[in-house]
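TL;DR need structure tokens for one chain.
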Amino acid sequence: MTEEKNIVNFLFEAGMLSKTPRSGFYFLGSGEQSVAEHVNRVCYIGYTLAMLDGKVDIGKILKMCLLHDLAEARTSDLNYVHQKYAETKENDAIKDLASTLPFGQDIHEVLREYHEGRTQEALYSRDADKLELILSLKEQYDTGNRRAKTWFNPAFQRLKTGIAQSLAKQVFETESDEWWYNNKEDRWWVTRGKE
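>> reply
TL;DR here they are.
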């Protein structure tokens, strides 16, 4: 295959993440999300954590956030119950993909650093992944799924950085619709500004 064909195949493969469901929502009993939707918000969270820190390599964090679940296009998403009993060959999936791309070594190195979790960039990227779950759980809790609250504590305990822990505490105290519906007494909600 030509290099360009391999690159196009990679882009089709990345698109598969929009069709791959995050399977933990089945166990939660409500909500749904594709891996691509999850990755999208993880990138915003990683950006936020990097900006709040101010001293880390934001580009590296964004690459880690963008690529952290890339293997799931081949392996699917295994939630915590699945991971207890099933084993994926995520590293093999990334090796196979990386071997076809002129920038494959970069993907492999970024994901190696992410999974090792030793650098501050990796810690923030991994926390971004967990904060995305916490935000999703809060959304489900706010719309009536009481079970989501029981998932908060284990998710919170997986956070490693102080910035992420502080944001997670604020997530627990903030209604998920507050960003747009914070003034429920505003007459606009009745008249839409046409009084």
